[in-house]
């Protein structure tokens, strides 16, 4: 039987799902990238998305955010167009904006970009078991085609031109019929600390609504340290996972078989962008994201000295939620 890792290249790694969705079904799909300056609190977050309500045609959107801690707030732009597409040589196309293996180009209102990146790491399949990608639950599927990569190229936005030269970041992908009731995404790469130059963390946590019940936090992710991937979370570790989140920071404990990661991620409120994320049933989440957050990790491994890793102004923290009193301005773009 083929494993997910074996299928990464020809199947799950490059193929978009939305072209195969029946007309009477609903689905959303997102390909996204995040890159941050190697030494300064300056970064970008770009998304290419598809949204399809049941019995309606799919629309595509291109989202762009420029984060700069020296600015009053992030600069954000979004365009929505009909008839998104995919192909054998790219993940997704929205208008003439494309994301493909090794390259990203596009525009959204006043922003444009042309980037290249190399695949330094094998894809990360967040779910630890193959059946979780085939089953009805969880309703959101996710993987990172490039959980750690370096971006180079040019970005123009808000009257500025940025020349990217080996900015660390990642490329992610998720899809499904329904967002989690509540979710967190955290990512960091190129930390300070022992082994930190090559280390990265990519983890997603979710609380899932099952009828009237909402589950505890379910974590799925990986810490790569000293060239070894330590899988974190999983269904069997739900009750040892600890999360204390606010709209602008999060304390967490992510247990794994070979390592446990205790950490903090967050930033000042003015460094966050807020968006509306729509579900296919018409409901909505508010989603806040900072891709220039600070992150500190303590890594505990059996029979090893604990390692502390830190990252200033280069981590990502995202929170998806139902509440509206989070205090972060929501961009005026429909989803």
Word description of this protein:
With 335 residues, the protein is mainly beta. It has a single domain (4-15, 28-321), classed as AttH-like fold (Beta Barrel). 4% of the residues lie in helices and 58% in strands. The chain has two helices and 24 strands. The chain has helices at 4-12, 131-134; strands at 27-36, 42-52, 59-68, 75-82, 85-87, 90-94, 97-100, 103-108, 111-117, 124-125, 140-157, 160-176, 182-189, 200-207, 209-210, 213-214, 218-225, 228-233, 242-246, 249-255, 259-266, 273-278, 284-301, 307-321. The strands form three sheets. Strands 1, 2, 3, 4, 5, 6, 7, 8, 9, 10, 11 and 12 form a twelve-stranded antiparallel β-sheet that branches. Strand 1 and strand 2 form a beta hairpin. The longest helix is centred in the N-terminal third of the chain and has 9 residues, at 4-12. The chain is globular, with a radius of gyration of 18 Å.
Topology (SSEs and partners):
Blueprint: H1 4-12, E1 27-36, E2 42-52, E3 59-68, E4 75-82, E5 85-87, E6 90-94, E7 97-100, E8 103-108, E9 111-117, E10 124-125, H2 131-134, E11 140-157, E12 160-176, E13 182-189, E14 200-207, E15 209-210, E16 213-214, E17 218-225, E18 228-233, E19 242-246, E20 249-255, E21 259-266, E22 273-278, E23 284-301, E24 307-321
